[in-house]
Amino acid sequence: MDFMVKNEKNICIIGKGSIGIRHGQIFKSLGYNIFFYREKRKKPKVKINFQYKEIFKLKDIKNKKFILFVIANPSSKHVKTLIKIIFKNLNVLVEKPLASTNLDLDKMKKLYEKFKINLFPGYQLRFDPRIKMMKKIIKKKQKKLRYANFHLKTFLPDWHPWEDFRDSYASQKKLGGGVLLTCSHEIDLAINFFGEAQSVFCVKTNSRLKTNNVENSIILIIKHKKNGVISNINLDYSYKNKEDRFIEIIFEDEEIKCNLNKKNLLIQKNYISKTIKPKLSVNRNSIFKRQNLDILKKIKNKKYKSPAFKAISQAEKIIFAAKKSILSKKFEHVN
Q1: Contact 132, 146 (CB under 8 A)
Q2: pTM of the model
């Protein structure tokens, strides 16, 4: 199967939940034809306000040419889905996390290397203009870095009011749930800012939210290989209050603060605060759109090849080391 033909405009999305629909809406607005691959004929729980087609048989996928596949079903199904659609030089966007177990991640690595595919992890916050601004400052002040705090406090039952949160993939171990896997953006941002992790320590915190054998509130410490920087990450989706999400980067002489629920950055130095406003929009759709435009630009460049698998799977490696640390109650090395 050829991975692309001239003027090809077809994109296939596997998974018709809120994220799959968001991707469909964005790619449709960019002029692409949207196809949803589904195993069962079910009415979507989220209203769809754009034109699309549905595919229910694998043979119909293989008989049509697609410029890009988007895997947006529960993370426990990512590898199985990739196996079904894999072919040489495939272009595929896989929503975070890439896999829900270390074994599945190893399987994905073998597929990635054997078929020489272009794989794009769905960590769209890297395309947030505030994150890009912070990264530039960090790059300039590498020698003065000390540590960083990442906090996400949210309430899982509020995410999808139309369903019982206990039925959500985020609550179920068999579907790849748990706050570490479901809310891994902060972990990816720590890597984006400070590079590879050397070791991690992770503990669960007390919570009354009843999820199905998965952690719903954790504190994670990452020791980065470069400059000895420490990332402190608190992920909590059992916080029954107004959502709070912020990042603090601490240097020897100043501090950067970013509240992701607000538009601006705050820089504090010598007891003086300065607000910096990004030039680009920071709403959720615009961030997804920038990610997707970047992916389209890369796959249209026939010379483009995505990085070594190790470089694009760092967040997942940290997650699985963190899960191990919860049980061992000690620092675990990140392979």
Answers
A1: no
A2: 0.93
Q: Assess contact for 1 and 62: CB atoms under 8 A.
A: yes
Q: What is the amino acid identity at position 43?
A: K
CA dihedral 80→8→17→285, nearest 10 degrees, is 130
Q: Can you give the pLDDT of all 335 residues of the chain as single tens digits?
A: 343 444 479 999 999 988 999 999 999 999 999 999 987 777 766 778 899 999 998 888 878 899 999 999 999 999 999 999 998 889 999 999 999 999 999 999 999 999 999 999 999 999 999 999 999 999 999 999 999 999 999 999 898 888 888 888 888 888 889 999 999 999 999 999 999 999 999 999 999 898 878 999 999 999 999 888 999 999 999 999 889 999 999 999 999 999 999 999 999 998 999 999 998 889 999 999 999 999 999 999 988 999 999 999 999 999 999 999 999 999 999 98
H, E, C per residue of the chain: CCCCCCCCCEEEEECCCHHHHHHHHHHHHCCCEEEEECCCCCCCCCCCCCCCEEECCHHHHHCCCCCEEEECCCHHHHHHHHHHHCCCCCEEEEECCCCCCHHHHHHHHHHHHHHCCEEEEECHHHHCHHHHHHHHHHHHCHHHEEEEEEEEECEHHHCCCCCCHHHCHHHEHHHCCCHHHHCCHHHHHHHHHHCCEEEEEEEECCCCCCCECCCCEEEEEEEECCCCCEEEEEEECECCCCCEEEEEEEECCCEEEEECCCCCEEEEECCEEEEECCCCCCCHHHHHHHHHHHHHHHHHCCCCCCCCHHHHCHHHHHHHHHHHHHHHCCCEECC
